[in-house]
Structures are given as C-alpha cells and as structure tokens.
Specification:
521 residues; alpha/beta; nine-stranded mixed beta sheet
C-alpha cells in the first residue's frame, strides 16, 4: 500500500515528516525519523551479504553492486531472555535499511499506530522473503516485532516497558541493561545496535515533553506518557555511552490496600495512614532512593476528599491523583540561551496565589522547602511532600539545611520553630536488603525542648530475623501511644474513634502484658 514499488523514482528515499511515534534506526544506519536533522539512510554494505534495495527499484545511493544474496540462517533464539548473536543484529539492520528505502513515510504518518504496525509487518515479511533469509516462523515473528518497535516505539526498550513486574530499567550504554524485579537488580538480555541508536531513543523520549539532551545539555529529566520517570545523562559526562534510567509505574495505580498485600504496612497501619490523610495532617514522606516514596504519596492522596482543590508541583509529573479538581504544575529547564527556567520554588510560591486547599510537592530538594513550610503554616492544611533521608530525625535536619541553602539568614531556632509549627507527621519508607519495601516509622513532630525538636514514634516496624530464603521477617506495631498529638484534629473530623481503634489493634504486649514502647524491653 505504501511501498514505492513500481514508480520510476521510487528508489530515492523521501525525507517526509515522521509518523506520530517514529523511532530511530538501529545503529544510526537508517533515518532518525524522530529528528529531521538525522543522516539519510545508508544502503547495506557488501559485507552484509545482501542489498538494502528491493529488486526492481533503482539504488538510492551509489554503491558497489552486490552479488545475489545467499540464504541466511537466523541464529536460534529459544527464549527472549537469551542474548542474540551479532548475526541476528546484522540481519535485522539489513532488513531495517531495506524497509526504510521501501516505505513511504509520508503515507505512514497518516495512519494510526495499529494500522502502521500492520503495514510495516507486511512489508518486512515481503523483504524477508525476497532477501532469502532462512528462519522459523517464531524467529520471523520476533524479527517483525523488533523492527516494528524500532519504527513506532522505543526499540529494544518496548518488551521491558510492557512488563508490569519491572520497577526500574537501567541502560548503561548500548550493550548493558539491568532491570529491577521484586526489589532485586538483574541483568536483562537486551542490547541496542550501538550508542547512536540508544541516543536517538533518548532524544525521542525527552522531546515528547519539550526537552532536549545533547552534548551541550547532557543531563535531562523527563517522563513517559504513562508518567514513568526518565533520567538521561549523555556523553561527554557519561563515559561509556548514554545512560538511561526509567522508574516505571505500574499500569494499575496502587492503593493502601495493595500495600497491605505486599506486607509494606499492616492493616491497622493502613487505617492509620488513611486517617492521617483524611484529617489533613501536614505530612512529609521520607526515605532513600527507590524506597517507594512517590508510590506511598500516591496511595496517601486517595484519602483526600473530592471537594478539595489540589495543586501538585513536580520536576517531572508522575503523581497520579484521582480527584476531579487537580492542577498539575511542572518545572522547566532553561533554554539554549540559558533563559526561561522555572524552578520548583517559583511553582510553590505561585501556588499560594491559586487558592489551593492542599499543595503537594513531588520532591523537596532545595530552597522550596521554606515556601512549602510557609504554605503549611498559613492555612493550607494537609499539604504533603517527599524528600530523601534515612530517618525522621535526619529528615528534619535536611529540611533545615535546604532552607539555609536558599540564603536565608535566619537563626537555627527560628527555622526549627517554623518546622515544628508546620509539619505534623513524618512517614519513613525504607528498602530492605531483600528488596522489599516497608513503612518503618509514622512519627509525630511534638515541639521544641530548648533547641532540639522532639519527635514521637506512634507506629514502627521492627525486624525479627529472616527466613531460609533470605526474606526479612518483621512486624508493624504501635508504640503504645493512645492519644497522639493530632488527636484533636481527628476529633474535629469525627475520626477519633477510628484512630483509637487502629492504635489499640496494633498494640503488641510484652510477657507481663504491658504494651511495648518504642524499644523492646
């Protein structure tokens, strides 16, 4: 339908506008349809054993005539997780080049993704037959799928993005890819043709959200259409080729109930978290990298009422709030001239003029901590944010440090008074050494004693050991606090009975029958 077969000048590749979701050619040999400035497709070289042109077409570029192609046997690929040989990628590159020389990109751009995929499959099947490539039906199906992904998707990343059990994808150059499954990192038998193909795919991803990555701007944060977080760092900063990291989101949004099923929190702890969200406690979620802070923040927002106006501020939009009245804001990096940057602090300050009921900051990492505390302390109860720290105590120290980073010449006691009057609850998330993620502390900010902020754990996770498979064994329990500081707030929202029930149900007694406190006695 869209081949240029039978026309006198059909052999000249058309530099037409790319389709809606094109992808770069593997190895940079074909047209980078995502970037119109990419090089034109090059014909197959003689040592590849086949010609890049379909018989009957004139050659697009001058090249030495190739002998009739010999039958090529595709190496056996018994499973997707086995590494493919160099021969496979040679055959794939040859077929891809022939496809680019044959297909009419102008017509392909007018099709939807499914129709375009079917058209590409038909043409590739014809090219495979003409080139006399010997392969089984299963092997041909894999080749068809790979080439469709290269043209319309994210190339070798597509099979990994389709798996819902993968939490992170880490590409360390064209030849090395790792994934995180069930909290553990493992090697993935996925490779790119070369660093050019990987870089082109990175550029495709970031260009979809209006950003760029190249030698002049080698670091970029972006997101996929489903909200998955993307970070790219390119040469010359990345010495072994472009490095791509994707934090994948599950297709189905997680809930607090599912966290109970994953043993991240107990059922009584889930009830306590729901009450904290419902009674509009100002909350900071603390944790290390990969501990599940953003996931927990998403779950916690499910308790927010539908009548509330929520404004979110993020570096790359990844929160998935389900309420109807949500305004999503995203920072912007500077342009080529170094102008036009919009920082997180700019967004948080602007939120105060937008009549929010709650302000949610995806990640607090700089001077915007001061503006968030100001918002929490000026009528925006129930505001939330996340930050990197290893304990509730360290969380407060980091907030103090970030405020000082903004150049505020304030005494430490003044900053701590602001923290105490603004933050009600700190929720600590941790990633255990077996890969599991746990909510380890629900801690209240009580007040100041001298110059020291006092904290009170009301719910903790304690380790008891590990099983024969190396999985951590532990339990969640309350610390015996019957009336936490936010009891009056719970009473105001008619949640005091549920709060008392959750705390009582999570108590654990010692041998004498007394509730265990913060430490085992």
């Amino acid at each position: 339908m869209f081949g240029k077969r039978g026309t006198p000048d059909a052999g000249i590749p058309q530099q037409a506008p790319p389709p809606a979701n094109p992808a770069p050619a593997p190895g940079g040999d074909g047209v980078d349809t995502a970037l119109p400035t990419g090089p034109p497709p090059a014909p197959a070289t003689p040592d590849q054993g086949v010609s890049a042109q379909v018989p009957g077409q004139p050659v697009a570029q001058a090249a030495a005539p190739s002998p009739p192609p010999a039958a090529q046997a595709l190496p056996s690929t018994t499973a997707m997780d086995q590494a493919r040989s160099e021969e496979y990628y040679d055959v794939k590159t040859t077929v891809f080049n022939a496809l680019i020389d044959t297909i009419d990109l102008t017509q392909l751009a007018r099709l939807d993704a499914e129709a375009a995929r079917e058209e590409i499959r038909d043409i590739v099947s014809e090219i495979v037959a003409i080139k006399n490539v010997v392969m089984s039906i299963a092997e041909q199906e894999e080749l068809l799928e790979d080439i469709c992904n290269d043209v319309l998707g994210y190339g070798p990343l597509e099979p990994l993005l389709a798996r819902d059990d993968i939490a992170d994808i880490m590409v360390n150059g064209a030849g090395t890819t790792y994934i995180e499954v069930d909290g553990m990192i493992e090697h993935a038998a996925v490779r790119f043709a070369d660093n050019s193909q990987l870089m082109n795919i990175c550029q495709r991803i970031v260009s979809q959200v209006g950003r760029r990555v190249d030698e002049s701007s080698p670091i970029c944060d972006a997101r996929l259409p489903d909200g998955s977080r993307v970070n790219v760092i390119a040469p010359p900063l990345a010495l072994d080729g472009p490095t791509l990291t994707i934090r994948k989101f599950k297709k189905d949004r997680l809930t607090l109930e599912q966290l109970v099923n994953f043993n991240s929190i107990s059922d009584t702890g889930r009830a306590l978290l729901a009450i904290i969200g419902k009674v509009r406690c100002n909350t900071v979620i603390s944790g290390g990298t990969g501990s599940g802070k953003t996931t927990l923040l998403n779950c916690l927002t499910a308790s927010i009422g539908e009548e509330e106006r929520i404004i979110t501020c993020e570096d790359s939009a990844e929160l998935q709030l389900q309420q109807p009245h949500v305004v999503r804001l995203e920072t912007r990096p500077p342009n080529l001239e170094g102008e036009g940057e919009v920082t997180m602090r700019d967004l948080v300050k602007n939120c105060l003029r937008m009549r929010p009921d709650r302000i949610i900051v995806g990640e607090v990492r700089g001077p915007e901590a001061f503006d968030l505390l100001q918002a929490m302390n000026t009528g925006h109860d129930g505001s939330m944010g996340t930050l990197h720290s290893n304990s509730p105590r360290e969380c407060l120290s980091r907030i103090e440090s970030m405020i000082l980073m903004g150049g505020y010449n304030l005494p430490s006691r003044t900053i701590r008074e602001m923290i105490v009057s603004s933050i009600d609850v700190i929720i600590q998330a941790s990633r255990m050494r077996d890969g599991s993620r746990k909510i380890t502390h629900i801690t209240e900010v009580m007040g100041l004693e001298g110059d020291v902020i006092t904290l009170q754990d009301i719910f903790i996770h304690e380790l008891l050991g590990e099983d024969q498979q190396g999985k951590m064994i532990g339990r969640h329990r309350s610390t015996g606090i019957a009336r936490p500081k936010f009891w009056d707030r719970a009473k105001y929202y008619n949640e005091e009975a549920n709060l008392a029930e959750a705390l009582a149900a999570s108590e654990v007694s010692d041998e004498s029958g007394s509730p265990l406190g913060e430490n085992l006695g």
